[in-house]
């Protein structure tokens, strides 16, 4: 959003409109840029928090989907392919490939023996299936239960709605800033008119002291300056209040957002920790089975 003071600054610096003696309030211009940046920050904040909420929901949904797939994977054991089935998969021409067929037969037998020799005990298989169902249930609770609901409600209540005072102050300061810029523009316009009269008299070699038009324009210029200063004070006051409100809001929102995410992720980790020790005991990764391809 281009602010009123930025528009005025651009007008004053364009070659066709430049007035070398036009007054520029660099302090107000800096504040104007800060207000503009804060407007942009609020828009980015809203988009980022929304995307973060969607991402957390996607994590919870994916978590549940993985849990369901684990349950499907452990519904029952898959039978090992027989030597005959594997051998028949080799396409042999008449009188060709006897050596390849013999090798395939040996591989099939070895595969069957290897699978048989490393068959999981029924107790282990049963435990893995039970843990898979338990994980699926924990994942479902994370997605449908109170963890995500509490996270979602907390973000809306303590993060998204918490910045509303800042957005309201931004709306208010926009009007004050625009009013201030308009009064500065009026002052500079009258200042230019006074200087044009003075230059006209100077070219004629006359004094403008007794000029009625000069006195009239000078009085309007001085009144415009005082009016501008009053508007500037209001803009400064509004800016200081905006800064104070924003500083407190930022601290509160950051703290609360981190707390909410920490609690949600803690519960997700906790749901895994309920199952992982039993899974490590049932099927340790450094066991003889971990080398099976």
TrEMBL record:
The keyword Coiled coil applies. Keywords: Coiled coil. It comes from the Eukaryota. Residues 1-30 are annotated as: Disordered. Residues 11-30 have a biased composition (Basic and acidic residues). Residues 173-207 form a coiled coil. InterPro entries: AH/BAR_dom_sf. The keyword Coiled coil applies. This is BAR domain-containing protein.
